[in-house]
Amino acid sequence: MTRDDYAVFIVDDDERIREALIELLESHGMRAMAFGSAGDYVCASKPDVAACLVLDIELPDINGLDLQRQIAQGGHPPIVFITGHGDIPSSVRAIKSGAVDFLTKPFSDADLLAAIQAAIAEDRKQRADSSDLGALRQRYFNLTPRERDVLPLVVSGLLNKQAAAKLGISEVTLQVHRRNVMLKMAAASLADLVRIAEKLDVPITHSRRVEGNEHE
């Protein structure tokens, strides 16, 4: 990875710590931005790249753990906590809330760098997954209303004749819609389409077994 496709954000009220961390990260070719408070970090314009947030627990305006909770739904980067006053309850709370690591000062350069690299890798994966999901949602949006009716029936495992009967259409028409769904959703197989439907939270409200029993 190159210096410009990721960033490390540092939030610590100790200027000496901020300077030392920036020097360390830049010596390893990492781009870093430092802030003296949570408010400065939240309000700052930040590059939209894979990132890691190195966050102190004790800040002048808010506790780092409280900041973690507040920004949890905002798409923030993975957090590596650093603190000079670590305790087990705080570390447990941080990790349970998704922090990559919880380091107590003084920590080794190697431990910090490893945690930061793990956080950036995690953020890259989350971004890739989010991008893939966005593409799937766009494909789903491009389906016609009838094709959206067909999709949950197909992934439920209904036979073509069962799905057609459910929608009040002919089996041939159902097959046309099914083929279009497969093509538009870029599904290579039924199993692939099922996985796509799961990612999109398409409701599965029918089962082949139950539908079959209706005709027994």
TrEMBL record:
<dbReference type="InterPro" id="IPR016032">
    <property type="entry name" value="Sig_transdc_resp-reg_C-effctor"/>
</dbReference>
<keyword id="KW-0238">DNA-binding</keyword>
<dbReference type="InterPro" id="IPR001789">
    <property type="entry name" value="Sig_transdc_resp-reg_receiver"/>
</dbReference>
<dbReference type="InterPro" id="IPR011006">
    <property type="entry name" value="CheY-like_superfamily"/>
</dbReference>
<keyword id="KW-0805">Transcription regulation</keyword>
<keyword id="KW-0597">Phosphoprotein</keyword>
<dbReference type="InterPro" id="IPR036388">
    <property type="entry name" value="WH-like_DNA-bd_sf"/>
</dbReference>
<protein>
    <submittedName>
        <fullName>Response regulator transcription factor</fullName>
    </submittedName>
</protein>
<feature type="domain" description="Response regulatory">
    <location>
        <begin position="7"/>
        <end position="120"/>
    </location>
</feature>
<feature type="domain" description="HTH luxR-type">
    <location>
        <begin position="136"/>
        <end position="201"/>
    </location>
</feature>
<keyword id="KW-0804">Transcription</keyword>
<feature type="modified residue" description="4-aspartylphosphate">
    <location>
        <position position="56"/>
    </location>
</feature>
<dbReference type="Pfam" id="PF00196">
    <property type="entry name" value="GerE"/>
</dbReference>
<dbReference type="InterPro" id="IPR000792">
    <property type="entry name" value="Tscrpt_reg_LuxR_C"/>
</dbReference>
<dbReference type="Pfam" id="PF00072">
    <property type="entry name" value="Response_reg"/>
</dbReference>
